[in-house]
Amino acid sequence: MNRSRGGWRKTLWNPETRKFFGRTGESWLKISAYYVIFYAFLGGIFIGTILVLLMTLSAYKPKYQDRIVPSGLSFSPYAANFDIIFKKDDPSSYEKYVNSLKKFIEQYNDEKQTDDMKFEDCGAIPKSYTERGELDSKAGQRKSCRFSRRELQDCSGQNDTTFGFKEGKPCLILKLNRMINFRPTPPSSKSFDNLMPVHCTNRFEVDKGKIGEIKYFGFAGRGGFPLQYYPYYGKMLHPNYLQPLVGVKFTNVTMNKELKVECRVYGGGYEKDRDTYIGRLLIRIIINNTCFGSHC
User: Fold this and answer.
1) pLDDT tens track for 102-123
2) How many Cβ atoms sit within 10 Å of the Cβ of residue 224?
3) Partner of 57 at 20 to 30 A CA spacing, among 135, 144, 151, 283?
4) Cβ-contact 88, 255 below 8 angstroms
5) Angle at the Cα of 39 (from 36 to 43), degrees rounded to 5?
6) Angle of CA points 87, 108, 227, to nearest 5°
7) What 3-state class would DSSP assign to 158?
8) Residue of 106, 294, 265 lying closest to 195 (CA atoms)
């Protein structure tokens, strides 16, 4: 047993040869120096590669934009799985939707757009793109077009703080997702000059006639996205940018039915045969106004 323990001790430290784990101090020093130099060299190559890559990238614009796809359509309030389900006479069932809309629309309050160094009026009717220079840092931060929540009228949340949910006539607020340097192209029809129109309808034939009248509220009383709010220059150059919005109000939805509603934006690049999901939303709406079984 003593001989065995002595053998283990000598493996760790041999006083006769003055070796630690089979190596002398000089040997440990040489191998340590080798690995320090080796890993420092590898680290230098890695850091150098990253620096060279960063030198080829711009902080203000994507490196490649030769295949820009149209910006996607999204909406508020937040709804898990795109389901808007609530009970008309139960405020707690639609409270989360109302709170989500209130939080989102706050940034469009007039008092938050008073600084003329950050915001400017871009006209009272839809106009062409507002060009603010090249996508670089030379011109500094760019101004943003004002967009007042008042443009959304019945969906602004100012006169009706429940955005229509209390009456069973809910509002959705639609927007195009931000995309640097994206310039939407309106349909060729003159009736949509400088405007990307939005339209919602039943997704399936079985729901035809059950959606009821849909009202649209937006810039200059139009249900669409005006071009003067584009292009977007990114967070660094356009930190105060406000997307134009469209309020969609369902005024006469058939109660106690599961309805599939499709909302689409129309214009160049948003053709139906290009991509099923580009510029399209599929939303399930269920509005209950009677009591059902265990939910009573």
Assistant:
1) 999 999 999 999 999 999 999 9
2) 26
3) 144
4) yes
5) 130
6) 105
7) coil
8) 265
Q: Which residues pair with 217 in a beta bridge?
A: 247
Distances (CA, A) of 285 to 30, 82, 105, 250, 260: 73, 9, 22, 10, 6
39/45 Cα distance (integer angstroms): 10
Placement of tokens 């009970």 in the chain? 87
Q: Where are the alpha helices (DSSP H) in 150-258?
A: none
For the stretch 145-186, pLDDT in tens is 999 999 999 999 999 999 999 999 999 999 999 999 899 999
Burial pattern 70-108, b for ≥16 Cβ within 10 A else e, equals bbbbebbbebeeeebbbbbeeeebbeebbebbeebbeeb
Helix (H) or strand (E) holding 17: none
Give the Cα separation of 128 and 148 in Å (integer): 19
